[in-house]
Protein: Aquaporin NIP6-1
Amino acid sequence: MDTEDVTSAPSTPVTPGTPGAPLFGGFKPERSGNVRRSLLKSCQCFSVEAWALEEGSLPTVSCSLPPPPVSLARKVGAEFIGTLILIFAGTATAIVNQKTQGSETLIGLAASTGLAVMIVILSTGHISGAHLNPAITIAFAALKHFPWKHVPAYIAAQVLASFSAAFVLKGIFHPIMGGGVTIPSGAYGQAFALEFIISFNLMFVVTAVATDTRAVGELAGIAVGATVMLNILIAGESTGASMNPVRTLGPAVAANNFKGIWIYLTAPILGALAGAGIYSAVKLPDDDDHGNSQNKPSAAPSFRR
Structure:
């Protein structure tokens, strides 16, 4: 604060409740009209935008505290529920499509799985990150966006959710279960290439909306769900468009159909690693001007935590 003449101090201690005292202790009003000031600039709790001080006006003060940490148990629980919803929805739609002789159509299968991904991300993304997929978990960990020590717990929850959904569906629709299994309809080489490419597409988009502060994180559910729908329209007829090892593993065990299962356990992981790595290589640097980085407002957090 610039030194300036002020009125004589009162004889009693000045508090925020004292008539005529400043609202915040140690804050003296400026008499210059158009000077920009930042209130409590050194306080990390308060986030106060610069304001043009006018006589008799007060700034708007907001306090943004970091959210409380989420325990690993809660994260794993949310991951289990989210993966259960996804596997149940995607597999059930495929089984119903088989039972009704194709009434759902490929567009219905794509819409069902894409909508399931979208609602799970929007409902649990702020808790667990809504990976729902071991390939995504491994890719995030490989790029240091997720701790390796949590990877086994996440993958265990995803695998358990896959088995749970698959055997519940087997109990409901038995003996019709084959339609829910993702198997290659052509050559294994073609199936591997398609699964790699669509997993690459998925992870490229996921990495963008989940790790880049310039992406619109609030629309992550819509973006990722739309990508899943697109991928199913591309590869659904050829491979079932798994993109997810546990999407294939649980139904395959429940239906005792392991045709080409190695494709679905390897291609999605390799494709996800490639997609995450390529996006990380081409994205803009975090701070174009490091000297001005402290003056930039922090971006809204993405769906991944």
